[in-house]
């Protein structure tokens, strides 16, 4: 997810790795504040008592590297929609220069309007399919003309979601109580665009009655085009939207309809009521009759449309009892839908929902760090022609583009994998017709830790990614998938604990393996294109926990074979309240005018990662496996180690001391198993440490601040077989030097 306006989180902390989880805000802050009485660094030690030391081992055997990467391709930041009126305050040389000082390389441009169920006018100049009424399907002008400084979204008038997995804005047109409004499905999912029978892309709407009710009747006020063939079904099992593989849809005994004629129809679905909370209308054949926008555009006649839905039962007198709340706001009975027609009009513009930043400003301001940027196209609520025009515009401007992400969070929009894949191929065809070299990818999943499940298909398959990959392969188009992208927000809001540091490495290793098991071809890069602790900010983002987590995440992902990641968010943001204290996704706190007030812990961690652990630039680094057997009473590894062999012949180790209360002393051994030899740091070892003795966050609502507030401390320590290094409690340390074998 990763969108500031739609994030809500809390934070909890862990008192001791060997005991139960305790709210973070009650423990870590107190423990670290007690120790923060001095700015003096804990020195690295030489010749320490070997009985108290732990050995860190690096598998340095030639050919044993787990991954190779370039920092200027693999370590990036991201920018999202910005609050209305903030662009001119943020896109200034001092702010951008400070943000770039964190050391992140490339940047990914996030496409937020789809989370708002809005069409995106990346270029406000363009053409409408119905120019006389300034409405229909909009295509931005691909010819460079005016400087694009701003871009905005146009909420779709024919939406069918009351709520989706992104920002909860707007409401469904199917239970709004308005006779003239209607939901309409995406015409690009019909046979005239997919080239496949419509039954292969069934469209659907789901009604959530809010509680289990006795149901045996439905009233559907069809708009045009209406469904000629459809089924009315009820769900047995858990939540069909949140847990779609744990249950089944069942057709009502009288819920299968053929040769329907549209209009307002009331159906008695079964002789006696059925206990159900969720109902689904599953549509497989359209009337192909034009909607209210006329006959001129064939898209107006493609798909399905519904004015209003009613559901309930018949009383003893045969009267229809409606259980649906009809209201033009979020108080309505909730509905979900398979897709939405991207038709809209000029009057739908909503600039106050946020500014997506104009592409010319984005590429010329300096935020791209003079590196190729990842850019999105609006796919779920856009048109292939508009997406192709966008990519062509950037090419004509000469802007360097690394990758093109297709759509935004289809899982959060409840888009079925075959529907997303059908759109993907249409958009890929249109884009490659104008820009053959464009590297396209997706699906841009929400931050997930497990395989995404969907309702089973005819073969019983429930893996979203697996079915998407199979669709591309079966259509001979897997080569159109140049990369796989997803977001990483691993921890649930209000449930973050200190012990999550131990979980993070396995979470990123696991999800990479999941995508491989789902069939992502070998060699296709896997990118995390937006990431932070959780999808809602609180104090855990800005105190030492946030810094330690960021180091764990980056080190573990790259060591596990990830191709690249993008940290969210590039620009400063004010602190906002969370479940356990105020925080921010940004690396800096900001005042009400978006001017930087203070670096956060993740800023300092970013600099350690980007400027100390790796050698900045576009040269290849190699990661290697490590081990450290220091564990607490509960079996948790107390020190995590991430090793890279840099192109300057230095070995660099990033060590995270997860212990909140104790420092630990380690020695470092490099094992070459093929030659049966050991190596050690040689010459002076550069040691850079940032931890609880350099930074402590003090909670004070919107005035929260750190004291001490950094920076990291640096020292030089002699190397050799006897060298030992003290890792302060709750800290990240970089050890960097050349290595020699004994």
Summarize the structure.
With 742 residues, the chain is α+β, with helices and mostly antiparallel strands.
How are the elements arranged and paired?
Elements: H1 24-35, E1 53-59, E2 67-69, H2 71-74, E3 75-79, H3 87-90, H4 93-100, E4 107-109, E5 118-121, E6 126-130, E7 135-140, E8 152-155, E9 183-184, H5 191-194, E10 203-215, E11 217-222, E12 227-237, E13 247-257, E14 264-268, E15 274-286, E16 305-314, E17 320-322, E18 334-337, E19 344-345, H6 359-364, E20 373-377, H7 384-397, E21 401-406, H8 417-434, E22 440-445, H9 464-474, E23 483-488, H10 500-517, E24 526-531, H11 544-559, E25 564-568, E26 588-590, E27 596-599, H12 601-613, E28 621-624, E29 626-628, E30 639-645, E31 650-657, E32 664-672, E33 677-691, E34 695-698, E35 705-709, E36 713-718, E37 725-727, E38 731-741
Parallel strand pairs: 1-32, 3-4, 3-25, 20-21, 21-22, 22-23, 23-24, 24-25
Antiparallel strand pairs: 1-29, 2-28, 5-8, 6-7, 7-19, 9-16, 10-15, 10-18, 11-14, 11-16, 12-13, 12-15, 16-17, 26-27, 28-30, 30-31, 31-38, 32-33, 32-37, 33-36, 33-38, 34-35
Helix pairs in contact: 7-8, 8-9, 10-11, 11-12
Largest sheet: 11 strands, mixed
- Large-scale geometry: elongated
CATH topology of the largest domain: TIM Barrel
Instruction: Just give the CATH class of the largest domain.
Output: Alpha Beta
SS summary, helix count = 12
Low-confidence stretches: 1-51
Describe the overall structure.
The protein is an alpha+beta fold and 742 residues long. The chain has 3 domains: 4-61 and 659-741, no CATH class; 72-122 and 348-619, TIM Barrel; 183-341, Galactose-binding domain-like (Jelly Rolls, Sandwich), CATH 2.60.120.260. Helices cover 17% and strands 31% of the residues. The chain is built from 12 helices and 38 strands. The strands form 8 sheets. Strands 1, 2, 28, 29, 30, 31, 32, 33, 36, 37 and 38 form an 11-stranded mixed beta sheet that branches. An 8-stranded parallel beta sheet has the order 4-3-25-24-23-22-21-20. Helix 7 packs across helix 8 (417-434), helix 8 packs across helix 9 and helix 11 (544-559) packs parallel to helix 12 (601-613). The longest helix is centred in the middle third of the chain and has 18 residues, at 417-434. The chain is elongated, with a radius of gyration of 28 Å. It starts with 23 loop residues before the first helix and ends with a strand. 55% of the residues are buried.
